C-alpha cells in the first residue's frame, strides 16, 4: 500500500471566486481530487493538511487505476510506511527571538513603506512589495487562493464571512503572509494554520437553509464579517483598528484630533488584492487601487436599495475590488497610519458597472464584537 501526496498549494492552480470556492458545500474532497472512497486499496491520496478526504470512517481516498508514473503531472508516489512530513513553513526553524515581538508590531500598526503609483492597470496599479504588510492570502483545502484578509493583531485576521460558505472548518484553511505573486513561491511567504474561525453572529447566508437564489445582494451579504485566530504569531505589522469606545466611534473625537467618521470621509483610502482584472492579465501579483469612500445615502441610491448602516461603499464600480479580493481591507490613512475601515464584501458581478460602487462590511459598526471576540479568545 502506498500514498500519493496532494499538494495544498499549486501556484498554477490559483482561482478567483467572489464567494469562496465555486463548488457545492456537500462536496466529497476525494471526488474533487479524482479519487474513490473505499475501505482498502494499494495506493491512496493523502492531503498535506492531514484532513480526512472521505466521509466514512476507515475509508481511504483510493487512486484510480489509470494513475501511472508516465503521467507528467501525477503526484509523487510514496511507498507504504514512508514518512511524508509537511515541509516546514518559511521561518519555522528560526528561534522565537528572531520574530518581532507582537507588542512592538502592534505599536507600529498602520505604518507602511511609501506607496509608489505605477503604470495604471485596469483601474489600479501594481503594488510594491511590502507596501501592504498586513494583507494575507487565504488558501483553502482545494489548494487555491480563495480570499484575502487583514492582520489586526499578532494572531488575528479580519476577513469576510462569505469566504467560509463551503468550508467553515478551521483545519481546512491556511493563512499565507508575505504573499506577493500567486504564481511564484518566495522565501518571504509563510503558511500558518488556523485554530478557530468566528463568523459575525448576525450573518446568516452561510446557513444551509438560507435560500440564496431568492435574496438580493444586499440581503445575501448583510453583516459579512469574520475573524480567524492563528495557531502562531503572524510576525507582520498589523493594520490599525479604531480602539475607541462606542460613543467616541459614532462621531466623537479623541486626543489625536480625528474620528473614524472623518477617516471615512477624508482619509486617503486604498484597496489591495489579487482579484480578477478586467483585461485578465496572466500575472497574479498584488494590485492596489485608490479611490474615495462614497456617501452612504448616495451609494444606496446608486444601488436602488437601502443599504444597512454596517455597509460602506468605495470606488465608482470600475475602480475597485473584484472577484478574488473578497475579505481584503479598505485601508484609509490618517495622521500617518492606515486604519481598516471596511472589508471587501460585494459589488457588480463583472466589476465594470460605472455608478455602482463596491460595498464593504463597515468595520466601525462591528468593533464591539471584534474587540470582545479577540479579548475573550486570546
TrEMBL record:
UniProt key word Ribonucleoprotein: no
Cleaved signal peptide residues: none
CDD domains: Tryp_SPc
InterPro entries reported for this sequence: Peptidase_S1_PA, Peptidase_S1_PA_chymotrypsin, Peptidase_S1A, Trypsin_dom, TRYPSIN_HIS, TRYPSIN_SER
PANTHER family: SERINE PROTEASE HEPSIN, TRANSMEMBRANE PROTEASE SERINE
Compartments where located: Secreted
Domain of life: Eukaryota
Protein name as it appears in the record: Peptidase S1 domain-containing protein
Region of interest (Disordered), ranges: 71-104
Record key words, sorted: Disulfide bond, Hydrolase, Protease, Secreted, Serine protease, Signal, Zymogen
Pfam families associated with the record: Trypsin (PF00089)
Domain Peptidase S1 span(s) in chain numbering: 121-375
Single GO term (MF): serine-type endopeptidase activity
GO biological process: proteolysis
Organism: Lottia gigantea (Giant owl limpet)
Record's GO cellular component terms: extracellular region
